[in-house]
Specification:
This protein has 5 helices and 8 strands, in the order βαββαββββαααβ. Strands 1, 2, 3, 4, 5, 6, 7 and 8 form an 8-stranded mixed sheet that branches. Pfam families: DUF3145. InterPro entries: DUF3145.
Length: 162
């Protein structure tokens, strides 16, 4: 079953941009050429975004491929499909990768078993800290400036080959 999603490369050194395209191409099985533009929030960095379609799980595969370059700031979303939750992957240098399940409108969804486990293990301020980790708050805080700086940027549409 095919799904769709978006790759947001919030910041990449110019020299790494072709590698980002090759990594996404390798996952989707089609040549990817992104429209890069300067990232106003980080001098000397580039940004790009693209929508993609492919089998469920492609979002995780794209995020895994991009993770090879630890200096990248990126997000990959995958829409939910019948029987498969949506997902969002965020990567920030120094924080690494975060993964969360998402609802149809893109909100992070915490499974009941995770919430119960956190409630059983944590107390006081630990509960707040653990829930922030599960919600990806540190990643959202770090990426917000880069998201805002990309408003109005061009989007490329990609489709996985057969």
């Amino acid at each position: 079953m095919n799904t769709r999603g978006v790759v947001f490369v919030h910041s990449s050194p110019t020299a790494v941009c072709p590698h980002v395209e090759w990594a996404i191409s390798g996952v989707l099985g089609t040549r990817v050429s992104l429209e890069w533009s300067p990232q106003p929030a980080a001098t000397g960095q580039m940004r790009a975004e693209c929508s993609w379609t492919g089998p469920a799980g492609s979002g995780g595969a794209i995020a895994g491929a991009l993770r090879a370059w630890s200096m990248l700031r990126f997000e990959v979303t995958e829409d939910p499909t019948t029987g498969v939750d949506g997902e969002r992957f965020s990567h920030v240098p120094g924080l690494g990768m975060w993964r969360g399940r998402t609802s149809a409108n893109g909100d992070v969804v915490l499974p009941e078993d995770q919430v119960r486990a956190v409630m059983a293990e944590a107390s006081g301020g630990q509960l707040h800290r653990r829930l922030d980790q599960l919600l990806g708050t540190a990643w959202d805080d770090e990426l917000e400036t880069f998201r805002f700086a990309g408003d109005g940027a061009p989007v490329t549409w990609l489709h996985q080959v057969g």
